[in-house]
Amino acid sequence: MILVMYIELPAHFLIESPGTHGRAGCEASDQPNPSLDEHQRKDVTLKLKIAPEITYRILDEFGEAEKQPDGSFVVTVTWPEDDWVYGTIMSYGEYIEVLEPEHIREIVKNKLLGAAKKYL
After folding, report:
1. What is each CA distance from 19 to 16, 43, 56, in whole angstroms?
2. Predicted pLDDT at 31
3. What confidence score (pLDDT) does residue 37 get?
4. Which of 41, 53, 78, 119 has the least C-beta neighbours within 10 A?
5. Range of the domain at 76
6. H/E/C letters for each residue in the chain?
7. Consecutive sets of 10 residues in the chain, 120 residues long: mean pLDDT of each?
8. How many domains does the chain contain in total?
9. For residue 24, how many other CB atoms are within 10 A of its CB?
10. Is residue 11 a part of any domain in this protein?
């Protein structure tokens, strides 16, 4: 037997989780990877559009989100810009779009195109 639950969220919701500071599973004491150059270690504010099919991940990984008329969610987060950010974004697959900033959108696009070439 499979149990399916649907959750109706208000247009704007806030979830606070102690110790994550916007980065699921990371404590405030986590240090940046010293092998990354200075550009990769600076914080970047991301605006992401996430499909409603993965609402459960929004609840788990983001502090707040704004529900859109089409059912998707827009989240704004500030994370250290590094490979973790790119990998996290790509882990959403077809269910995410980087709206801002443009340079992160380009980096993710190029990484996804590189991965796709391995399968074409």
Report:
1. 9, 18, 20
2. 41
3. 58
4. 119
5. 40-117
6. CCCCCCCCCCCEEECCCCCCCCCCCCCCCCCCCCCCCHHHHCEEEEEEEECHHHHHHHHHHCCEEEECCCCCEEEEEEEECCHHHHHHHHCCHHHEEEEECHHHHHHHHHHHHHHHHCCC
7. 52 45 40 50 92 89 89 94 94 96 97 94
8. 1
9. 13
10. no
